User: Which sequence fits this backbone?
């Protein structure tokens, strides 16, 4: 009798979950992210929310929860109900921070259901327009002469902007002084004010300022030159064979989301980034508007987590 009751309860729970998924969404949806307003992630989150809300038929609000390279927002979403109403807009900083941090209160890959990447983009290694460095090669040579003397800014300890420079350092056997900021925009401001010598920065918030000459791009982290800056050489071209760091921004939710909800969100994200307005804005930010399947996004996160875990071990980098 007890076995029959248990089976009946499980069946009812499954049916209830299916019915809930079929009616999804029927109330407000939250897009959380872990970075300050105005940065690359915030801009993309708002672009996605505005367009996806039209197809989903429900309002989507953005909830920035800055701190600890996005991990505060990630933990919040990982612990939320897996019903599709609390989602996470996240960058490639997610696996990087997870690999370097001594403790994170979630499993980097397994505590999330992966919906789709929305945009891929490289990093630019930038200096001020009045910097003495004209090439990345010159900057690296200076670091060899004076280990730890050159300062670089990032969006925080464990952010992808941090790990990208540390990967350059590891590959070239050089050392730099890391100055963490609370987000990408403050790091750019720090460079402008002369508090740091250089930064690795996503193309979105700095591309126009490079075009106007406020900053100078020394290198791009993609394997080939980026379409928006064809005159900027790759890091590979400047003496680091095989170097590539491509960042991304995408959408995820807590683990155990109903499959129909994941499918619906994936479909709506694909539709959103294919609309001319969103696509052109993502491309204007230097991104490649390109969706993935949930399985492809999971594989991407897992592979980058493995890369940064290897760097953390070999370069003895960790976050308290």
Assistant:
């Amino acid at each position: 009798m007890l076995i029959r009751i248990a089976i009946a309860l499980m069946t009812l729970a499954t049916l209830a979950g299916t019915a809930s998924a079929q009616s999804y969404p029927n109330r407000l949806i939250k897009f959380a992210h872990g970075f300050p307003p105005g940065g690359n992630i915030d801009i993309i989150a708002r672009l996605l929310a505005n367009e996806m809300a039209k197809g989903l038929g429900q309002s989507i609000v953005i909830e920035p929860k800055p701190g600890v390279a996005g991990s505060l927002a990630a933990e919040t979403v990982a612990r939320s109900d897996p019903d599709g109403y609390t989602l996470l807009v996240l960058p490639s900083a997610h696996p990087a921070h997870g690999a370097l941090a001594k403790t994170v209160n979630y499993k980097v890959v397994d505590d999330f259901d992966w919906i789709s990447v929305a945009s891929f983009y490289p990093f630019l290694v930038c200096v001020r327009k009045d910097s003495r460095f004209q090439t990345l090669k010159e900057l690296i040579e200076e670091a060899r002469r004076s280990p730890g003397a050159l300062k670089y800014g990032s969006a925080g300890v464990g952010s992808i902007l941090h790990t990208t420079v540390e990967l350059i350092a590891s590959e070239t056997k050089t050392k730099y002084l890391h100055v963490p900021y609370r987000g990408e925009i403050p790091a750019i401001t720090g460079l402008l004010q002369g508090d740091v010598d250089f930064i690795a920065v996503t193309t979105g918030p700095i591309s126009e300022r490079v075009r106007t000459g406020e900053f100078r791009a020394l290198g791009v982290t993609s394997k080939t030159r980026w379409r928006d800056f064809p005159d900027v050489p790759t890091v590979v071209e400047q003496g680091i064979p095989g170097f590539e760091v491509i960042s991304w921004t995408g959408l995820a939710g807590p683990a155990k989301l109903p499959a129909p909800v994941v499918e619906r969100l994936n479909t709506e994200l694909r539709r959103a980034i294919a609309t001319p307005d969103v696509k052109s804005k993502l491309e204007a930010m230097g991104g490649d508007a390109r969706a993935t399947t949930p399985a492809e996004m999971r594989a991407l996160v897992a592979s980058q987590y493995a890369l940064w875990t290897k760097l953390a071990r070999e370069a003895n980098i960790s976050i308290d």
Summary: The domain at 122-238 is CATH 3.40.190.10 (D-Maltodextrin-Binding Protein; domain 2). The first strand starts at residue 29 and ends at 33.
